[in-house]
Every structure is written in C-alpha cells, then in structure tokens.
Design a protein that fits this description.
The chain has one domain: Class I glutamine amidotransferase (GATase) domain (Rossmann fold). The chain contains 7 helices and 11 strands.
Length: 230
C-alpha cells in the first residue's frame, strides 16, 4: 500500500482576457475516477492545494449534457471523498517524498494558479528527480509549467504529454477570450504535446510522467498510474 497525493487548484474563477470572469472549480470525473481506482487498489489518498483551500465543484461537470450520464455518480464520489478527508493539506507543507505518486486533475483552475505556483514547482521538480509517478489530466498539465529551475529552465521541456487540446477548448466554447491556451503554451515551452481526437480518451506516458487529454482520460490515466506503480 502506497500514498498518493491529489493536488487541486484553489481557484474558483478564471479571469478572461477582457476582464470578465468565468466560474471554475474541480472537474468531478477527473477527481473521482482516479480517487476511486486508487482507493480500490488499496492506496491511501491525500488532497492538497495552495493554502489548503478547498476548491468548489465546477458545476459544468455536474451537467449530464456536458459531462455525460454518469456525472452524478462522479459528483457524489468526489464530494464524499473531500468531505471525509477534510481540509486539503497546504501545498507548502507537503513533503513529496512521502508519496509514491502525485496527480493533478483539471477544471480550468490550474491555468489560473497552479501553472505559476512556486511550491508546486519545487514539489514537481523533486518528484521528477526521485522518479515519483507524476500524473496530470485535462487542464491539470498546466501545473507542470510551474516546475521552473533557478535559471528559468522548464523541468518537463522535451517530454511527451497529453493535455486538453486547443480544438477541445474551442469546442467547449472557452477558447475565445482565454488569456492563453494550454496545449499551445505547453508546445511553446518545449513539450511534445500529442493531441488525439476531441473528447476521446488518450493517455501518454514518458517515463514517470503520465498525462491524459480530457475528462474521458481520467480513468485510463489512473489505470496507467497504477500499472506504473506496479
């Protein structure tokens, strides 16, 4: 039995390029599906976030017309898991050496805060140095952008990864007015972003780094992380 850390954003709004705000929060399936698989496999799961803030649910992920017929089950599981755990651990207090794997789920929050969170950056650099399994799904890979060293080099430059594609952002209706688009930014920083068909499950593994493209990739990514953990 190992410990796995799920690192959430603390953001509840996404400021758009025109100054308007878009409500956000954690995406239920991206938190619930991996959590359920990790716990069923016998692992202990902790939650952490910047400042220990409990991010709200992204209500879009509770809408069956957007998130699918199974979304209510994901919402119930996520809300129960978070309630039973209690307040997330403050990210700056986390010792990543205590964990065999870390997971960054999405919702738009990571493009608001995690992409530039220095505590997360230090944690991810340490995790990568020690070969800890690092998983990220949908907008979660934005958090990888925080892993910048003292010289400004990005730890994950050159690595293969999946993430929510620019096409998916356009189809979702949030590309226009976005301050920046995730897949494009990852490529700009030097990632080998590998996009598949919109909203179809896709996971990519590059060593200890495992990533998923969209909400449908959440369960398959968790399975891949469990396989990597052996």
């Amino acid at each position: 039995m190992s410990k796995i850390l799920i690192i959430m954003s603390a953001a509840d709004v996404w400021e758009r390029a025109d100054g308007s705000t878009y409500p956000t929060g954690y995406w239920a399936e991206e938190l619930a599906a991996p959590h359920e698989k990790f716990v069923d496999a016998g692992h202990v799961v902790d939650f952490a976030s910047p400042g220990g803030v409990l991010q709200p649910l992204d209500r879009h992920s509770a809408d069956p017309e957007i998130a699918g017929a199974d979304c209510s089950r994901h919402v119930r599981h996520a809300e129960t898991a978070l309630r039973e755990f209690g307040a997330p651990l403050p990210l700056h207090e986390v010792d990543v050496d205590d964990y065999a794997a870390v997971l960054l789920p999405g919702g738009h929050g990571p493009v608001v805060d995690l992409h530039q969170d220095a505590d997360l950056g230090r944690l991810l650099i340490r995790a990568d140095e020690t070969g800890t399994i690092i998983g990220a799904v949908c907008h979660g890979p934005a958090g990888l952008l925080s892993a910048v060293d003292a010289e400004g080099g990005w730890r994950f430059a050159g690595r293969r990864m999946a993430a929510f594609t620019d096409e998916e952002e356009q189809l979702f209706g949030t590309a226009e007015g976005a301050p920046w688009l995730l897949a494009a930014r990852l490529r700009e920083r030097g990632a080998q972003h590998e996009g598949g068909p919109a909203y179809e499950a896709r996971t990519v593994r590059d060593g200890n780094l495992l990533t998923g493209q969209n909400p449908a990739s959440s369960g398959p990514l968790a399975d891949a992380m469990l396989d990597a953990l052996g």
